[in-house]
Structure formats: C-alpha cells, structure tokens
Design brief:
This protein is mainly beta. Helix content is 9%, strand content 55%. The strands form two sheets. Strands 1, 2, 5, 6, 7, 8 and 9 form a seven-stranded antiparallel sheet that branches. A two-stranded antiparallel ribbon has the order 3-4.
Length: 128
C-alpha cells in the first residue's frame, strides 16, 4: 500500500505526490518601512511556511483523486493541512485560491491528472 505524505482536514487519500515544495515568507507588519535616513525599520509579524503540491491519481484509486479535488475546491475559508517539515510533520490552517489539472479522454472516460495547488498559511507558524 502507498504511504501518505500529507493530509487535508484530517483525511488521508491515496494519491501519488509528484512534487512537494515548501517555501517561507518572513513577513513584516504595516509598521515596517524606510526611515527618514533611509535605514530600514522592520517589525516582523512572523514566518509563514507555504507549500506547493502536485499530485497524480493512482490508477486503482481515481476516486481518491476526485475526492481530493472536491475537498480542495470547496468554497471554505481554510483547510487543516499536515505536511512534512524537517524530520517531522507540520499541521496548520492554510487557504487555497486556485488549482489546475488536465484531462485526457480515453475509452469514453475522463481521466484527470496533474493537479497543482499552492497552500498559503493563514497565520505565521513562527513568531518573534
């Protein structure tokens, strides 16, 4: 059986993770900016960890891929995500604004694949 790399809203689905990228953003508050002497003043709000996920369906579990698509495209405020982080997992609330995949029509079936999604953390995972 396949090992799950992530979960969404507490659900683990049998999908093939083709790519998982993480990025970070050290974000300033609105009080940050250039001073009169052009020196930079920073009031750091915290560090956000964001992820980009690309998945493919496993041939025997296309329903899991479709279920994931329904979950991720739901008009909700956020999702609880669990992704690998360092040598452990990180669970946090993230939002998604868009995703995309492709379809091939084979023997009268719609075979969707290549779903790519960018997850943005709702709040900083690390604060000063």
């Amino acid at each position: 059986m396949t090992e799950t790399i992530f979960s969404i809203d507490g659900v683990e689905l049998r999908v093939n993770v083709m790519s998982l990228e993480r990025g970070f953003s050290v974000t300033d508050t609105k009080n940050s900016g250039r001073l009169q002497n052009y020196g930079m003043y920073r009031e750091v709000a915290g560090t956000f960890y964001n992820y980009t996920l690309e998945i493919e369906p496993y041939p025997g579990y296309r329903d899991d891929y479709d279920t994931f698509y329904e979950i991720i495209s739901a008009p909700v405020r956020s999702h609880q995500m669990t992704f690998p982080y360092a040598q452990r997992n990180l669970t946090f609330e993230a939002y998604v604004t868009q995703g995309k995949d492709k379809m091939k029509r084979i023997k009268g079936k719609n075979l969707w694949s290549g779903l790519s999604i960018y997850f943005v953390a709702m709040e900083p995972q690390r604060r000063p």
